[in-house]
Design brief:
By secondary structure, the chain is mainly α. Helices cover about 100% and strands about 0% of the residues. About 0% of the residues are buried. The model has no long low-confidence stretch (mean pLDDT about 85). Keywords: Coiled coil.
Length: about 150
């Protein structure tokens, strides 16, 4: 009986092969396998892209945070500048008054030095005149003594 069943199975197989049924079944099975393989490859590629996407999203997030921080820093700088503007103006006014005071002091010192120089020059001229007159008097005295000796 087993032989008969085995013979029947083989006969059915030959009939299916000859009719093309088995070939179509094999093709459809192969196509199914191919589709499964393609879907698996797509899933694999998607899984590979996930870490890249995660990294890119992290990088984007970090860039956005850095831009926000830069904006905040700029706002803080502007706020600090605004806060110190009155102090800067006061410091500028103080510096101007100090510079004006120093310039005034320098001018006064220059005038004092000029008057001192003029006084010293006048004193030097007076001393030179005194020496000249003394020298003239000594010459006259020596000339009169030489004339007296000559007589």
């Amino acid at each position: 009986m087993n032989k008969l069943l085995e013979f029947g199975r083989k006969a059915m197989f030959y009939v299916r092969v000859l009719s093309g049924y088995e070939e179509r079944r094999i093709r459809s099975y192969r196509l199914q396998l191919q589709k499964r393989l393609q879907q698996a490859e797509e899933r694999k590629a998607a899984i590979k892209r996930i870490p890249e996407q995660i990294i890119l999203s992290e990088v984007r997030r970090m860039v956005e945070e850095m831009q926000a921080l830069n904006r905040k820093l700029e706002e803080t700088e502007v706020a600090i500048e605004e806060y110190f503007k009155p102090i800067d103006k006061e410091a500028e006014i103080i510096m101007k008054t100090q510079l004006e005071g120093e310039e005034k002091t320098v001018r006064e010192m220059m005038k004092a030095m000029q008057t001192q120089a003029l006084l010293e020059q006048a004193e030097a001229e007076r001393l030179a005149n005194v020496k000249k007159t003394e020298a003239n008097q000594q010459e006259k005295a020596s000339a009169s003594t030489t004339q007296a000796e000559v007589r």
